Q: What sequence folds into this?
């Protein structure tokens, strides 16, 4: 088979004609799942984070008991758990994309990945436990 | 074969463009919010445990340093939220022309100022 550029090498995407075959290495082959999860958590965080921000704002000048009572209700407890999980997932993907751009040594990259993943898991676990304690405590 | 690196488009080495400046700001505010998530979880823990821990945390947050941090995080939050919506619109294929992208950029800045001002007015007038 000769490698001449023919019509079948191109495909129409929207209004442009783009190459059907990738040049050189092509993509890194993974990353799409993470890209999607970043967008999915972003969309989820629009209502969730606004709900959380408004709630915090009304709790800002109140005491601990008001906050504890609020988190013992099922809807706030569930939504705050979702804020923590979606927020930390979104943050981890974002921070990972930053370290991938600026950390170029394999060993350092691995160390940074492990560190940030561990911090994310601990934060998510601690946040969920704290809300569950308040919710189940009543 | 080396993979291409993305250029570091900081305005000192690169001509200022509202789009690249806001892109850098999106990352910076994202990092600030990631750090802020530690405080968020810490606050949840102190509400759950109560006592001295909550009182100390509350006193710190109400101090001048605490308020400056909270103000910074509120700016970062509103900016990242508004600019995130702009990014989602791009992902859906809208607003990618240069004129539209810079206009929506200025709209994001205006919305950030407005939302931050409204939030802190609520805090101090409540």
A:
């Amino acid at each position: 088979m000769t490698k001449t550029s023919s019509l079948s090498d191109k495909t129409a995407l929207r209004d442009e004609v783009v190459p059907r075959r990738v040049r050189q290495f092509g993509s890194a082959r993974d990353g799409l799942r993470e890209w999607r999860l970043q967008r999915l958590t972003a969309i989820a965080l629009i209502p969730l984070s606004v709900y959380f921000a408004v709630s915090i704002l009304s709790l800002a000048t109140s005491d601990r008991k008001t906050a504890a009572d609020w988190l013992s209700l099922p809807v706030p407890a569930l939504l705050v758990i979702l804020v923590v999980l979606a927020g930390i997932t979104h943050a981890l993907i974002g921070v990972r994309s930053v370290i991938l751009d600026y950390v170029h040594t394999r060993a350092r990259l691995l160390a940074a990945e492990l560190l940030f993943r561990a911090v994310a898991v601990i934060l998510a676990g601690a946040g969920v436990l704290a809300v569950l304690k308040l919710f189940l405590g009543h | 074969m080396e993979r291409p690196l993305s250029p570091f488009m900081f305005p000192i080495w690169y001509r200022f463009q509202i789009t690249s400046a806001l892109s850098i700001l999106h990352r910076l505010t994202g990092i600030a919010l990631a750090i802020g998530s530690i405080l968020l979880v810490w606050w949840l823990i102190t509400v759950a445990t109560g006592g001295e821990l909550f009182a100390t945390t509350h006193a710190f947050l109400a101090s001048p340093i605490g308020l400056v941090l909270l103000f910074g995080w509120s700016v970062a939050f509103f900016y990242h939220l508004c600019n995130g919506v702009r990014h989602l619109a791009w992902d859906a294929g809208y607003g990618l022309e240069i004129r539209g992208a810079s206009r929506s950029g200025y709209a994001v800045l205006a919305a950030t100022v407005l939302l931050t001002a409204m939030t802190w007015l609520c805090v101090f007038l409540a």
User: Anything to note?
Assistant: The helical segments of chain B are 18-49, 51-62, 64-91, 98-125.
